[in-house]
């Protein structure tokens, strides 16, 4: 099998390692089948697009819609590299699944308006498939129900999709929870790479990054512990199985 590539942009080694472990777990891939590209510090691996099965891009402390002059060197480097990779992804129709930061990067690349109008605090939200979502091959392979709970925590979101993009899922606060461009390029606002214990662990690492009030952290965690959000990770397993070659 040709490997998949996981793109990471988290500067914290422990958080990045936990994220990688989660992607391995939920996709069912072996270490050798999931290359790791930490684009906040290194360029994308020297691979031809025909040498890989697909690309997975997870969350990040970075925010695409921030003013350029407010972004640090690592973010500018990562976003320039991601933009270059997405050029190749679209040109060669490479399977792509971006989560949270991935919806901002793919959306920006494709001409979506990304801003802070539809941010959501840390928590679980109801996600509803659109008619196109119910017919989408990846969604069908993941056997998602028409409405399910997704884990979120984001400052920015899609405000407007470009005409060529297809909305696959919506939410009450963030109207675009999942979309597709091309035939095999996907992005979600919710986190398919996180379950409840892992989003709590992630939130502790980013408690002072503005995703929630630190004073309310333990109360939010208590509410989350009563949540079942087991459907989104099915997308990762389905993505790996559907597009492996």
From TrEMBL:
Gene3D superfamilies, A to Z:
3.40.50.880
What organism is recorded for this protein?
Brachybacterium paraconglomeratum
Which Pfam families does this entry report, sorted A to Z?
GATase
What the entry lists under CDD domains is as follows:
GATase1_1
Residues covered by the Glutamine amidotransferase domain: 50-194
Q: Which GO terms describe its cellular component?
A: cytosol
**Name of the featured protein:** Glutamine amidotransferase
Keywords for this protein: Glutamine amidotransferase, Transferase
GO molecular function, a single term: transferase activity
